[in-house]
C-alpha cells in the first residue's frame, strides 16, 4: 500500500483535537495533535505522538513535562494556529495550570510529567503521567477525513 492510501484510511477514524504545550527556558511552545489517547487509570497515564522531525519533539523531551488541551467545538482557529496554518504571530492568553501553559477555553486541560518515551517509526510516543486535570462542560472539536467536524447529537444504539 502507498502512503496516501494509509493516510486516507487513518483519517477515517474520528478523533478529538488537542494542543500540546510545554515551557522550556521561559518560552512556551505548542503544536496541534490528534494523536492522543488514554493509556491507564491506575496509574493515570496518557499518550501523545510527535513527529521525530518536529521541533516540539525536542522541547517536550528537554522539558520533561507537557500539557494537553482538548479543544472545544469553537476553537478551530486555535487548532489552525498551533498547526502552523496561520502565519501571523498572535498573542495567546494561556491558562497557567499546574505551572504549565494550557489553552484557555478548552474543555479539558491535563498536565503531565514524561513517564516514558519510545521511538516508533517516524514518531516519538510520549507516555505522560497525569499530574492534574481540569474539566468543564462543552462539546469537543472533532477531526475526520482531513476536516474539522462538530459533535452534535447522539446516535441511537439499540
From TrEMBL:
GO molecular-function terms, A-Z: FMN binding; riboflavin reductase (NADPH) activity
InterPro entries with a match to the protein in the record: Flavin_Rdtase-like_dom, NADH-dep_flavin_reductase, Split_barrel_FMN-bd
Keywords: Oxidoreductase
Superkingdom: Bacteria
Pfam families named in the record: Flavin_Reduct
The Flavin reductase like domain, residue ranges: 10-150
Keyword Oxidoreductase on entry: yes
Keyword Oxidoreductase: yes
GO annotation, biological process: pyrimidine nucleobase catabolic process
Name of this chain's protein: NADH-FMN oxidoreductase RutF, flavin reductase (DIM6/NTAB) family
Lineage, uppermost ranks: Bacteria, Bacillati, Bacillota, Bacilli, Bacillales
Amino acid at each position: 500500500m502507498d502512503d496516501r492510501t494509509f493516510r486516507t484510511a487513518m483519517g477515517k477514524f474520528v478523533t478529538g483535537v488537542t494542543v500540546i504545550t510545554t515551557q522550556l527556558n521561559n518560552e512556551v511552545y505548542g503544536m496541534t495533535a490528534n494523536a492522543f489517547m488514554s493509556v491507564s487509570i491506575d496509574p493515570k497515564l496518557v499518550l501523545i505522538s510527535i513527529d521525530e522531525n518536529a521541533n516540539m519533539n525536542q522541547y517536550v523531551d528537554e522539558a520533561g513535562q507537557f500539557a494537553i488541551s482538548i479543544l472545544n467545538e469553537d476553537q478551530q482557529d486555535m487548532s489552525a494556529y498551533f498547526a502552523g496554518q496561520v502565519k501571523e504571530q498572535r498573542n495567546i492568553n494561556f491558562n497557567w495550570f499546574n505551572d504549565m501553559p494550557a489553552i484557555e477555553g478548552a474543555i479539558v486541560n491535563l498536565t503531565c510529567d514524561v513517564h516514558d518515551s519510545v521511538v516508533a517509526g517516524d514518531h516519538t510516543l510520549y507516555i505522560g503521567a497525569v499530574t492534574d486535570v481540569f474539566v468543564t462542560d462543552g462539546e469537543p472539536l472533532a477531526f475526520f477525513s482531513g476536516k474539522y467536524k462538530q459533535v452534535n447529537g447522539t446516535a441511537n444504539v439499540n
